[in-house]
């Protein structure tokens, strides 16, 4: 049996002991669960950032350890119940989640809690260079230019 002790007390889920502290503070939707079990590293990082922002808006002033516990308590059962993953894959996913979660929390702390960045996308260097050049020609930073492209695409998708 694998034990992930991210808090005090645990509930067994499919051979894993998932944290009880923070349980129920975050609800994982079926869409999020699919991203957590099937998504790539960028998807995982984006979902984690979304969880952090959601928790911080629900509980202003939430501390680092409470955020960590709530996110782990929500994520662990999703992975523990993933039938398509071996025990070794589940363990690796849990450890990766915790590492990315800690990285994202550190980024939030160092940015003074700025939650304006909700997504990061993996793109090739060639695509980034083209975006950077286009942004410069418009007098924008690459991130502002990419955000405007995504805002426009989201608006069009909603119509």
Spans of at least 5 consecutive residues with low confidence = 1-14
Beta-strand content estimate:
5-15%
Task: Provide the residue-averaged pLDDT.
Answer: 79
Order of helices and strands: EEEHHHHHH
- The number of helical runs is 6
Rg for CA atoms: 18 Å
Strands side by side in the biggest sheet: 1-3-2
Classification by helices and strands: mainly alpha
| Biggest sheet statistics | 3 strands, mixed
Helix content range: 55-70%
Gross geometry: globular
Q: Distance N terminus to C terminus?
A: 49 Å
**Number of beta-strand segments:** 3
Overall description:
- α2 (41-58) packs across α4 (87-110) and α3 packs antiparallel against α4 (87-110).
- It is built from 6 helices and 3 strands; from the N terminus they run βββαααααα.
- Mean pLDDT is 79; it is low at 1-14.
- β2 and β3 (16-19) form a beta hairpin.
- It has 159 residues and is mainly alpha-helical.
- The radius of gyration is 18 Å and the shape is globular.
- A 3-stranded mixed beta sheet has the order 1-3-2.
Question: What is the strand and helix layout of this fold?
Answer:
Blueprint: E1 2-3, E2 10-13, E3 16-19, H1 30-38, H2 41-58, H3 64-80, H4 87-110, H5 125-137, H6 142-157
Parallel strand pairs: 1-3
Antiparallel strand pairs: 2-3
Helix pairs in contact: 2-4, 3-4, 5-6
């Amino acid at each position: 049996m694998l034990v992930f002790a991210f808090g005090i007390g645990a509930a067994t889920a499919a051979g894993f002991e998932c944290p009880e502290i923070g349980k129920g503070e975050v609800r994982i939707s079926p869409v999020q669960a699919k991203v957590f079990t099937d998504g790539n590293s960028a998807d995982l990082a984006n979902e984690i950032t979304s969880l952090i922002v959601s928790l911080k808006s629900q509980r202003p002033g939430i501390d680092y350890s409470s955020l960590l516990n709530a996110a782990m308590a929500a994520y662990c059962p999703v992975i523990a119940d993933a039938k398509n993953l071996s025990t070794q894959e589940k363990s690796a996913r849990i450890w990766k989640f915790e590492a990315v979660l800690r990285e994202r929390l550190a980024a939030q702390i160092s940015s003074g809690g700025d939650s304006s960045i909700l997504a990061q996308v993996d793109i090739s260097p060639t695509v980034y260079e083209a975006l950077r050049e286009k942004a410069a020609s418009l007098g924008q930073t690459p991130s502002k230019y990419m955000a405007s492209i995504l805002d426009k695409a989201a608006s069009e998708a909603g119509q």
